[in-house]
Fold Cyclic dehypoxanthine futalosine synthase.
Amino acid sequence: MTEKASLQSVLDRAAEGGRITAEEALDLYRSAPLHALGRAADAARKLRYAGTEHIATYIIERNINYTNVCVTACKFCAFYAAPKDTKKGWTRGLDDILRRCAETVELGGTQVMFQGGHHPDFGVEYYEEHFSAIKKAYPQLVIHSLGASEVEHMARISKVSAEEAIRRIHAAGLDSFAGAGAELLPARPRKAIAPLKESGERWLEIMELSHNLGVESTSTMLMGTGETNAERIEHLRMIRDVQDRTGGFRAFIPYTYQPENNHLKGRTQATIFEYLRMIAIARLFLDNVAHIQGSWLTTGKEIGQLTLHYGADDLGSVMLEENVVSSAGAKHRSNLQEIIEMIRTADRVPAQRTTTYEHIVVHDDPANDPVDARVASHISSIAIEGGTAHPELKLLSSN
Ligand code: SF4
């Protein structure tokens, strides 16, 4: 068989939902023609979502950045301040955080992503206090937040096991983990960009533990900091192996490194083609992960639309607030009307979803599209006085 025929036969198998090996995935990632890869991934998506394959989803959410103080000093990060850098470091109070939650509810958001640095004083108790306060005030909000790195850190600060940390923050209100901190799981690239973070194996061990305790998660990947193609596929293999045992990863979300204001200084970046190939190979290789999310925040809106033809079934969120990736240079922002339009002009029917991917509303008639212009993304809004883009909002009272 020629190399071309052999690649096509692997593509055909994957498109029909068959499993491919990591070696085959690497061959496809490196050598399959871009459009053939996209066609196979799109076929695999249609097969998985037969009956609803015409729909692509989005969610309305808010990132709540509670502190930028961090002891971990990842080299790709433009967000953190070292604990001794008191001029740059900040921490939000509970009132400020609840105000942000209130706005999220007011604007139709369903999820908050609590995201911040590894603060040297924040153990399990800090998260218990904040999650229970959020749930008490806004029980309708889903807390989809943090990841294995934060669990490792808070457990160390509180001198408890990771299992106890997960049990306690789940009991306090955490619904699911956002899978933050995965970055790149293989040892070489992980050490190069995040030398003080736990190993990739430990990250997966904590996610597996969490799944076994009934707390599901999404999974992520940071592309473009100098990793090899083989290391990208190895990252996927490590996730697929855990998923075979737990089934707890709801989605896979690759995004691209942003080069500004960090120690890597834009040394390398993933190209748009590499990103599209990753979306497609993730759909084909991760046959046990239901949802593949395309990121328009880091790659741009047109590329976000293209991902829906390369295997993605979800276009992420109208992020009412984002400060982490935007600190490193991501400048794309959107709003509710635009994200609906992005999906529709990519030839899909848009649907707002929940954290667990149920459809809240399917926008099958443009005449009924929502028109609230306030539902828009605000990036680096830490600069906004009072932490709000909407001082005019009359907030819903607690409960
Ligand atoms: S990525 Fe997270 S853990 Fe790493 S330095 Fe930034 S805030 Fe800290």
Q: What stands out?
A: Residues 394-399 have pLDDT under 50 and may be disordered. Residues 55-387 form a domain with the TIM Barrel fold (CATH 3.20.20.70). Residues 144 and 166 are 13 Å apart (CA to CA).
